[in-house]
From TrEMBL:
GO terms for molecular function: beta-glucosidase activity. This is 6-phospho-beta-glucosidase. SUPFAM superfamilies: (Trans)glycosidases (SSF51445). Pfam families: Glyco_hydro_1 (PF00232). The keyword Repressor does not apply. GO terms for biological process: carbohydrate catabolic process. It comes from Pseudolactococcus plantarum. InterPro entries: GH, GH_1_N_CS, Glyco_hydro_1, Glyco_hydro_1_AS. One of its GO terms (cellular component) is cytosol. Keywords: Glycosidase, Hydrolase. Coiled coil: none annotated. The keyword Hydrolase applies. Gene3D superfamilies: Glycosidases. The active site is at residue 375.
Length: 479
């Protein structure tokens, strides 16, 4: 395996999952702040009467506290530097900059905070990789405007993107416009700020919201490239390699259609700069009428495609329409049919390193732009031993096999920019609002109710990843 000498090894987080301090320094409420913790999260968000109200008498809201990275970021970044990070992917909370989302003047306290985070990274030679919008839509925009189905959000996002790009473009080269933009196909609450009471069950609204996000993303690329043509501004999707249940052509066709709708649609528009040929068929099958597309939108999309594809990869899936009694499993946003050839995580996500090699070849063959794996990791229960050690060999095994698959893809000719495993430090899970679903190399002493000291300690995987980075991916053994 031969990763490039400037390969970006690092880790990834999101503001709403680790910062805490949800109402400090002028920050407003985001949709994440209204999402309750625990496995009941999806049930609440998917209920007919959910209206984004915060009910602290009934639910807990772990995002409010997170792991207090807001006050402890220097300590955390020092640990990232000790591991040898070349980059650190994090997000800017929109509500720290524009508390309600529709203001015209930014909150200087929020900008100052992220300037400090960026400068702390640069102090250690760590490249910041910033997601502009990572499941952190201002709550006011979800409640008063109905989320991204409303065209007005394009203006608000453009203002937000212009503010942070103008402020930080001289220090930050790598950006992404929206996190896992395609997740709206199953959970519009996260990326589009839409729930059943505001029309999330209507496919027309989801696709219209996507169009607005595509326009907003293109505007961010335009702003960034006008500030500095060397900025690299990417899109970001969930990618789940998908297999057919069997060789039945019916299941093969179902896999093709699934890939078009889930794995390709958003990237086809953001990378190629135009709606794909299968759009009309997709809209017909989803019951979507022609979108409200303003004059100049399509020209903007064509003129300002993204520079690279960032994507998350945790698992693969299986498409089946013929075997009605097939066993099903959980997954990242989308579940599916159980694959008997794969093991699964503690949360039922099917582990498939070879699927990552397939994903990389598929995306690079389709788009011919650089790729960046900006999320990959194993959510698991970690046991603290009597001596304080955490022997997460299962995490090392998972990551080592995925890095080996990355190397195979590089040898296949894929242009791979970097790798930032998800949750490099333990944080609140986006899917379940739990702390017990841990991903990090760094353990944070907090339980699902955020009781604990909050102290940081190194897992066995910490030293292992340190050696991986130092050897540029050549040394994957678990000593």
């Amino acid at each position: 395996m031969s990763f490039s000498k400037d390969f970006l090894w690092g880790g990834a987080t999101a503001a709403n999952q680790l910062e805490g301090a949800y109402d400090a320094a002028g920050k407003g409420l985001s949709v994440a702040d209204a999402m309750p913790g625990g496995k009941i999260r999806w049930q609440v968000l998917g209920s007919d009467d959910f209206d984004w109200s915060i009910d602290e008498a009934t639910y807990s809201y772990p995002n409010h506290k997170g792991i207090d990275h807001f006050h402890r970021f220097k300590e955390d970044i020092a640990l990232f530097a000790e591991m040898g990070f070349k980059c650190y992917r994090f997000s800017i909370a929109w509500t720290r900059i524009f508390p309600n989302g529709d203001e015209t003047t930014p909150n200087e306290s929020g900008l100052s905070f992220y300037e400090q985070v960026i400068d702390e990274c640069l102090k250690y030679g760590i490249e910041p990789v910033i997601t502009i919008s990572h499941y952190e839509l201002p709550l006011h925009l979800a409640k008063a405007y109905g989320g991204w189905q409303n065209r007005k959000l394009v203006v608000f996002y453009e203002r937000f993107a212009k503010t942070v790009l103008t402020r930080f473009h001289s220090k930050v080269t790598y950006w992404m416009t929206f996190n896992e933009i395609n997740s709206a196909i199953a959970m519009p609450a996260l990326s589009q700020g839409m729930v059943p009471s505001t029309g999330s069950r209507v496919q027309q609204n989801i696709f219209q919201a996507w169009h607005h996000q595509f326009v907003a993303s293109a505007l961010a690329v335009k702003i960034g490239h006008e500030l500095n043509p060397d900025l690299k501004i990417g899109c970001m999707i969930i990618y789940a390699t998908t297999y057919s249940f069997d060789a039945n052509p019916i299941n093969q066709a179902a896999t093709m259609v699934h890939n078009q709708a889930f794995n390709y649609f958003c990237t086809d528009v953001q990378v190629r700069g135009e709606y794909p040929a299968y759009t009309q068929r997709l809209f017909k099958e989803k019951g979507v009428a022609p979108l409200d597309i303003h004059d100049g939108d399509l020209a903007l999309l064509k003129s300002y495609p993204v520079d690279y594809i960032g994507f998350s990869y945790y698992m693969s899936g299986v498409q089946n329409v013929t075997a009605k009694d097939a066993e099903t499993v959980e997954g990242n946003i989308l579940g599916g049919v159980k694959n008997p050839f794969l093991e699964a995580s503690d949360w039922g996500w099917q582990i498939d390193p070879t699927g990552l090699r397939i994903a990389l070849n598929d995306l690079y063959g389709r788009y011919q732009v650089p790729l960046f794996i900006v999320e990959n990791g194993l959510g698991a229960y970690d046991q603290v031993e009597a001596d304080g050690s955490i022997n997460d060999d299962y995490r090392i095994d998972y990551l080592a096999k995925h890095i080996q698959a990355m190397g195979e893809a590089v040898d296949d000719g894929v242009d791979l920019m970097g790798y930032t495993p998800w949750g490099c430090i333990d944080l609140v899970s986006a899917s379940t609002g739990e702390m017990s679903k841990r991903y990090g190399f760094i353990y944070v002493d907090l339980d699902d109710h955020l009781n604990g000291t909050g102290n940081r300690s190194k897992k066995k995987s910490f030293a292992w990843y340190q050696q991986v980075i130092a050897s540029n991916g050549e040394e994957l053994t678990n000593d």
